[in-house]
Amino acid sequence: MEPRFNLFGTETGSKIAKRFAGLGQAVHQTSLPATTAELVSLRASQLNGCGFCLDMHVKEAIAAGEDPLRLHLVAGWRETTVFTEAEQAALAFTEEGTVLTREGVSDETWDNVRKHFDDEQVAALVCLLGLINAANRMAVITRQKGGSYQVGALAEHA
C-alpha cells in the first residue's frame, strides 16, 4: 500500500507535528531513562503495526547506544533475560495501555510500574504512551511507510 496522504505537508499537520515533537522532547527531558522511553515507543509501535514509528524508534535507539539485540527481542520480552525489572514493568504497562480493555492497565501492572518509577517518571510514561499511540494511529491511518527516517529528524521540528 502506498501512503495515502502527506499529513505533514499541510499547514494543520505541520503545526500539530511541531507540537507533538515538542511534547516528545518534554518527555525525553524527564528522569525517565531514554532507553525505557524508546522501548515503550517501539513496543507500542509493534502492537499498532506502525512501520514509520518502528523505523524511527529503532534508529533513534541505536543512535543513542542501545544494543540492537535488545531491540530485536522487544516483541518477546517476557521470554528473554535482557530487560531489567523496571523495563519489564514498563513493557507490560505499554502492552496493557496500548491494547486497551475496560480495565485499562491492571492493578498488578500499575503497582509494578509504581514500584520501579517515581511520580515524575510515571507521569512521563503515561504521557509517552498516549503520544506514541496517537502518533501510531495518525501514521497508520495515512499509511506512512518505514525505512526512510533520518535520526534526529523529529527533534528538528520541536
From TrEMBL:
Gene3D superfamilies hit by this protein? AhpD-like
Q: Record's superkingdom? A: Bacteria
Keyword field contains Oxidoreductase: yes
InterPro entries hit by this protein: AhpD-like, AhpD_core, CMD-like
Matches recorded under SUPFAM superfamilies: AhpD-like (SSF69118)
The alphabetical list of record keywords is: Oxidoreductase, Peroxidase
Q: Which Pfam families match?
A: CMD
* Coiled coil, from the record: none
> What positions does the domain Carboxymuconolactone decarboxylase-like occupy?
16-96
Q: Which GO terms describe its molecular function?
A: peroxiredoxin activity
| PANTHER family (UniProt xref) | 4-CARBOXYMUCONOLACTONE DECARBOXYLASE FAMILY PROTEIN (AFU_ORTHOLOGUE AFUA_6G11590), BLL7811 PROTEIN
What is this protein's name?
A: Alkylhydroperoxidase AhpD family core domain-containing protein
